[in-house]
Amino acid sequence: MASRSGLEERVAGALQEAVREAYGIELDGVHVERPNHAYGDFATNVALANARVFRRNPREVAQGIAEALDAPFLESVEVAGPGFINFRLSPGALGEELEALLAAGEGYGRREPSGAPILLEYVSVNPTGPMTVAHGRHAAYGDSLARILGAAGRKVSREYYFNDGGNQIRLLGESVAVRYAELFPDRQWPVLDPESLYRGEYVREIAEELKIRDDDQHLNAAPEEALPEIMAFATLWCIDDIGRTLTRARVHFDSYFNEKSLYESGAIEKVIEELKESGYVYESEGALWLASSQLGDDKDRVLIKKNGSYTYMAPDLAYHRDKWERGFRTAVDVLGADHAGYPPRIRAGLVALGLPEDFLDVELVRLVKLVRGGEQVKVSKRAGTFVTLDELLDEVGEDAARYFYVRSSHRTEMNFDLAVAVQQSDENPVYYVQYAHARIASIFRRAGLDPEDIKEVPSGDFAPEERALLLELFDLPRVIEGAASRREVHPLPTYLEALATRFHRFYTVHQVLVEDEELRARRLALCAATKNVLGIGLGLLGVEAPERM
RNA sequence: GCGCUCGUAGCUCAGCCGGAUAGAGCGUCUGACUACGAAUCAGAAGGUCGCAGGUUCGAGUCCUGCCGAGCGCGCCA
Questions:
Q1: CB atoms within 10 A of CB A14
Q2: Backbone angles phi, psi at A365, to 5 degrees
Q3: Which value does ipTM take for this structure?
Q4: Which of the nucleotides lies closest to A445 (Cα–C1')?
Q5: Of A140, A146, A320, A422, whose CB has the highest number of CB atoms within 10 Å?
Q6: How many helices (H) and strands (E) does chain A have?
Q7: CATH assignment of A428-541?
Q8: Class (C level, CATH) for A115-161+252-365
Q9: Protein-to-nucleotide distance from the CA of A334 to the C1' of B54, whole angstroms
Q10: Which nucleotide lies at the shortest CA–C1' distance from A500?
Q11: Model pTM?
C-alpha cells in the first residue's frame, strides 16, 4: 500500500475509520481517486461501491460517512452526485507532503527492494546482423520496464540471451564466406542454397574485416573446416555491433547468456533426461515428443528431430530451467507478437520439469510498422531491406527515439513514420516534458540556488494552479506502482506530459521569483519538487532531463 | 477454420478496481511575449468509444455474438 502517496493513504485510513464508526463495517480497502479538480483534491466511491453491503441509498450512506469522518488534514468534505464523497486537503497537509517529497529527493516514489527476484529477459536479438527499428521497441520497453520494476521495489535482473547455437548462425557464416571469397580474384565459396543467405551491406563489411585480419587463409582449407572460424568471427562482430547500439540507446543488462553454453555444459541433455523421467515424453516417427497437449498447449511438440538434432524447444527449456536454478522465481520474457504461440509450449515443458505454472510470464510486444512518407517499408533482414536502430538514432536522437517507443502501449501496433519523426522532432512530446525541466533549471540559475537545497515549505495557502501541480506530483508513487504491476511503461509518458502541463500552466499564471519571501520560498519549493519528479520520471525512461536546451 | 491480441477525435495515443461532463499531443482556426526561457499559455472546432445485444443503480471498461486488422496454428527460432 506504500504505492500511494502519504496523503492518499491518510484519506483512505480516515475513511475506513469513519465507516467502522458510523456503520460498524470493516472494509478491506478503500478506493481513493483523483477526480476532476472542480470536484476536489480526492474523491471516493465507497458509498457507491459498497451499496449492497450498506443496503441503503448511497447518498445517505455517503452523508453518514462524511459526518463520522475525523480528519483534521481535510479542509472540506462534500457529498456529491450519486454518492461520491469529495475532499479538499488543508494547505498544511499539502505543505507537509511537499516537504516529504523534497526530503525524499531522487528516492521519491521508490520502494525498497523486497520479494522474490525476477529475471527480465528482453531484446535477445540473434547475433546475425545489426539491430533494427523493430528491435528498438523491445530494447526501449525492456530497459524502461526494468527501471520501473526496480523503482517499485521488485528485485529485477536483466538478461540478454544470445541464440548463438542455431542454424541461423551457420547461415550468417556462409553469407559472410561468400562475400569473403568474392574479395579475392578467382575464388569462390560453394553454397547449397543462395536464396537463404543474408544480404545486408553489413555482411560485406564483416567479410572485409575478416580479410584484413586473416587474408585468404580461410579459403585454403576445406569449407567445412573453415566455416566454424568464420561463423565465430561473424557472430562476435554482430554481438559487438549490437552491444554498441544498445549502449548508445542507454539500454542496459546485468548479464548475457549464450545458448552455446547450454550445449557445452550438458544442460540440454540433462533436461531431456528429466523430461523422460517425468513421463510427459514419448517417441514417435523417429522423433522425441513432449506431450505438451496434456499441459495446456494446443498440440504435442518435438524435442529431438528425426535427424537427431534438438529443436529450439530443448535449449530454451534448459535455459529457463537455468533461470530457476539461479534462484529466480519469476521469469519475464519480452518477445515479439509473432511468438504468441511460444508461451504455452514452453510453460508446458517447464511444468513437466516440475516448475510452477506461473514461473514464466511473457510480455508480447507488437511489431513496429515502419512507414516512410505514408508508405509502408517492408523490413526483412534476409533481403537487406531494413532500417537499423542506429540510423533511427542518427535521425531523431536518443531521447526522442526512446520516448516515442514507449509512449504507446507495447501491446498495440505502432506506426513509426520516419518522415514524420524526423520532420516533427521539435514537436515531439518529449521536448514538451524536457522543456518544463529546463525552464525550472533556468529559474534556479537566475535565483542562484540549487534546487536540492530547498527543503522547507513556509506555511500558507496554495493557489488553484499550485494545488493542481502538487496533486500531480504526489501521484508519482501510484503511477510507478501501477506501471510495475501491469508491466506497462506507457503510463510514465502519459503522467509526465500531464505533470508538464500542470507546471507550464502554473508558470504562466504565477511569477516564481517575487519579492515576498515566503511566497517565493513556497513557489521555489514547488519548482524544486517538480524538477525532481520530472527527473525521476525521465530517468525511468532513459531520457535525459536537460538543464538547458 | 481454430486460438491469441487489438479496434477511442483527421493522425499518433491515454483513460487507474465498473462511476460524475471520455482526455493529451500533432494538425486546423482565434488570441497572448516592456515579468523568472513563447520548444509556452488561453480559447475554438473536432467523438454513434468498430456494430448489436446482455449484466448493473451506472459500461469506453465486464459477458455473448458479429464486422474489421495483426499474429500464431513447422521435426523454423
A1: 21
A2: -100, 125
A3: 0.92
A4: B36
A5: A140
A6: 21, 15
A7: 1.10.730.10
A8: alpha beta
A9: 37
A10: B40
A11: 0.93
